[in-house]
Amino acid sequence: MASRTPISAGNWKMNLSNDEADALCAGLAGIDEISGVQVVLAPGFLQLGRVASAFEGQRVGVAGQTMHEADSGAFTGEVSPVQLRESADWVILGHSERRQYFAETDAGLHDKVVAALERGLQPIFCVGEQEEERELNRTEAVIKRQMDALQGVDIPLGFVVAYEPVWAIGTGKAASEAEAQEACQYLRQLLVHLAGREVADSCRVLYGGSVKPDNAETLAAQPDIDGALVGGAALDAESFLAITRAIAQTG
Question: N or C, fewer C-beta in 10 Å, the chain?
Fold first, then answer.
């Protein structure tokens, strides 16, 4: 199995004023000194430059929470990969909230992943099932359909996928270690078919959904889980630092 550096990624979603973002960055001082883990922060678009400046020269990645696939054009309210690359080196694509509330499609996400890679951005590609889909034993079918968006993509070594069961996001109800591992193992098997064993073994597969300091290490310790995409707990410096240290222990 390839050596994979785990990731602690914080998705701030539509939260924090400029002053609050500055305070959170100050509270995270020293996070880049935690060895054995890659830290990525995904603030709102208006805070991207502030966060990038706060961690300039440090081992902290900065991510957009979405992007348009075109480099430019008459797309009011959107941010292009060219624009995003000026402040960020990562981008979250396909988050369930984007799929649910903004009608993002698998076909559209294919184009966004291609555009991100072409412009030097590292995608964090998100997949995951709704609660009713899990209850109907359709978890693997849903994940496969969503992963099929990567058909035809030249998936690079170290590509990142996040498994985020929708029923666990923001609910306080995390998947069990066994449930998370089973889904992430299946994701890696799909990556073998999409890109070959070498690439699949190098890919980081993250878990997201009610990740907290008290469950981060046990989740990240699973053989096919390489860290976490954290939501609510990433807005609290103490909690996110604790999660990051816990993930580092599994590297």
Answer: N
Please report which helix (H) or strand (E) contains residue 230, including its range.
Answer: strand 227-230
Nearest to 129 by CA among 87, 91, 89, 183: 183
133 tagged catalytic: no
For residues 38 and 248, the answer to whether their CB atoms sit within 8 Å is no
The closest of 10, 1, 197 to 92, measured between CA atoms, is 10
Q: Where are the chain's structural domains?
A: 7-248
Active site residue 238: no
Q: For each successive 10 residues of the chain (251 residues), what is the average pLDDT?
A: 86 97 98 97 97 96 98 98 98 96 96 98 95 88 96 97 86 83 97 97 95 94 97 97 96 74
Selected catalytic residue, list 69, 104, 129, 164: 164
What's domain 7-248's architecture?
A: Alpha-Beta Barrel (3.20)
